[in-house]
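Per reviewer request, we include the raw input and output of the structure prediction for the construct analysed in the revised manuscript.
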Amino acid sequence: MSHDPVPPPHLLLSDWFASVKDIKQHYFWLDFKNLNENNRKNALSRLTFLTEKYGINPSDLIVESRRPDCLTSFTESGFRTSYYLPTVHPYKTPDDEIVEIARKINSSLLSGKVNYLSSNYISYWFIKFYFPQAHILLWTMTGNDNNRPVIKNVLDDPCVKVFLKEELMAGEE
């Protein structure tokens, strides 16, 4: 229960849901780092149990994974799902590598049913070029947001459904 680079505390998702006040007024984005064919059924069963227990509408919860083939059952159960793409930096990734990444992503998309594509905002133009109709979830980490023109486009794009931006707390550098 954390986000890189902070090490996760020893907290169960059920304990965290139990601590959220007015839980029905919230949306959740869960990044399944280890979702695979062997654990997807148990993960879906447990997440379904927790949403029922805490009164969370499955459509208010995004399940993200690098395995779109494992997300289909979540999508069909009413959860929002997102295929977590690799970050493709438009000025640092060679063109032939970008084309190959797009080909692999497209192939992976054929194996699963997802609602969104998600990535670091640096990949925005890559996603827009190769997957122009996709609904997109993006994020940026502090110190990673110097590209104001891209951020303006991200904020103005109706295909971008969520843009998470980590802010520095006072005194942090």
